Amino acid sequence: ASGALDALRAKTADELLAASGAAVGLFSKGNRFGPVVDGWAFPDAPAALFEKGEINKVPFIAGSNADEGTMFLKNLPISSPAAYRLGMRALYGEHAADVLKLFPAESPDEVKLALNKVTTVTAFAAPARAMCRSAARAGVKAWLYHFTRVPETALKSFGAFHGLEIAYVFGKAGRTPGFDETDSGLSESMMGFWTDFAADGDPNREGLPGWAPYDPAGDVHMEFGESVRPGSGLLEEACSLADMIAADLLAARKDASPRRKWGRKGK
């Protein structure tokens, strides 16, 4: 083991990446990079730790955008309804029929729309909701949001795409042609929520709509869009299906992957 580690350390970063088959995008071939369950830094998969409530008891904000998938689909080789159905069956197995029912695609134009929504739910909206649910069960306050604003910029065709909300949180929604007063006002509100949360662990402040901590019973979230308003039941049916799929995948990985226990020095 020490010889293999020495050999790896002798390689450059470029050599390691070239040998790894690193992937770009959510559906590309190649290695996936993520937390390694080593029995020390990660005693279990992060999703499993959240589910069991074995998390640090600190408040957090989690959320998603309405069109998380659009930025990842440019090079995806799925353009026909038939290819879409095959892809869903390969990805979701026994749950594919339910996925296709919720996100049908009967024409080529509908395929990317459906893929966008599938990606939005399974990779972003459902995991964010699951984190908040687990936190609530563990007695930790968490706030869930969904960003839906689509500004009149050159990227309008991507919708409320992955990462767009960051410009609003950091006060940059106004430096690019296409942003207007609605965007400036939305940015001011989001900065208010985020800075108050950073200051004392609670995003609420006077003059902004009340943002309740997540509660599974109410399934509440805050929408940041044309206006700032609370909502409930965000993509509820689709998120619940995604939760089932994630639980099955987690169980399958546990059955298939033996755990290696590491000591503090990696031995």
How would you explain this protein's 3D organization?
This protein is an alpha/beta fold. 45% of the residues lie in helices and 8% in strands. β3 (220-224) and β4 (228-232) form a beta hairpin. α4 (81-92) packs across α5 and α6 (108-137) crosses α9. It is globular and about 60 Å long.
Chain-averaged pLDDT: 89
Query: What distance separates the N and C termini?
Result: 8 Å
- Note poorly predicted spans: 258-267
Rough shape?
Answer: globular
The amount of beta strand, in percent, is: 5-15%
Q: Determine the structural class based on helices, strands and strand pairing.
A: alpha/beta
Radius of gyration: 21 Å
Supply the number of helical segments.
9
**How does the major sheet shape up?**
4 strands, mixed
Order of neighbouring strands in the sheet with most strands: 1-2-3-4
Number of strands: 4
Features:
4-stranded mixed beta sheet; alpha/beta; about 270 residues
